């Protein structure tokens, strides 16, 4: 056992039983670097994982929520654009009446509620829930 200063390290000469050609070292180095790269995370893999989760959710929202809502909104707008005098309507408050006047520039409609007292309501065009049809056809 040596208690003094540390011994100088001896140089060991490694003797291979055979010599490796230069191209063999290059190929081995390439394989080793490839194995190291396989073990590392790809910096774009985090983005791809998030994208693969978010895209189907976004597609689901578009197909099942946004697109049907736009279709219903377009149908409702078409219904409100087609409202004319003497149409029977139901308001969003549940009041039944007959359209007496339509002013689309002011976004206003006049609905006759009671024939006996000639009661009329001035409403916005958006307060019409449904158009039941033309009153003149019913009579």
Quickly give the CATH architecture of the domain at 85-138.
Roll
Q: What average pLDDT do the residues reach?
A: 80
Radius of gyration: 41 Å
Distance between the termini: 122 Å
Total helix count?
3
The strands making up the biggest β-sheet line up spatially as 4-3-2-1-5
Class from secondary-structure proportions: alpha+beta
Shape from CA axes? rod-shaped
Query: Which topology of the domain at 85-138 does CATH recognise?
Result: SH3 type barrels
The tally of beta strands, per DSSP, is 5
Runs with pLDDT <50, length 5+?
none
Biggest sheet details: 5 strands, antiparallel
The proportion of residues in beta strands is 15-25%
The helix fraction, in percent, is: 40-55%
Element string (H = helix, E = strand): HHEEEEEH
CATH class placement of the domain at 85-138:
Mainly Beta
